[in-house]
Amino acid sequence: MKVTMKVWVLMAALTLGGAGTAMHAQGPGRKQIYSETADPKAAIAAGLAQAKREHKRVILDFGGDWCGDCQVLDIYFHQGANRAILDKSFVLVHVFIKEEMDNNIQFAAKYGVPIAKGVPALAVLDENGTVLYSQKTGQFNDMRHMDPGSVNEFLNRWKG
Questions:
Q1: Which CATH superfamily does the domain covering 31-158 fall into?
Q2: C-alpha to C-alpha distances, 78 to 102, 135, 145, nearest whole angstrom
Q3: What is the CA radius of gyration of the chain?
């Protein structure tokens, strides 16, 4: 019983504590958020088309399932008031970035997001694809030490 509890506590700490990039999406507690095989260009185009139809904004979320902070951001996006704002005002598009930060970086660059500052990294676009916000200083790459309120402030600021 003690061993099982210790394992559970360790898994929870690793998952919520962003315990490093060594733990991959297949590891315990990891939710698949980012598709490694999706075409970012097509996903962004589909997100913009949906945003135009629904008169919403687009959040581009650059990150990976390997990233503990990306996992925490996704949890915060989908909690309580944040979920309601996200659903009402945004189309969320996830763009996969490998641990080595060597793939899909051209999409981040196109929207003014310096991936070298870390992930998760966000950009907000209007329904026409105009960049309204691009994360410049790694504001969200330490989500494990932030609270849902910081995501709520972000969503409220950019919901339009």
A1: Glutaredoxin (3.40.30.10)
A2: 28, 20, 17
A3: 16
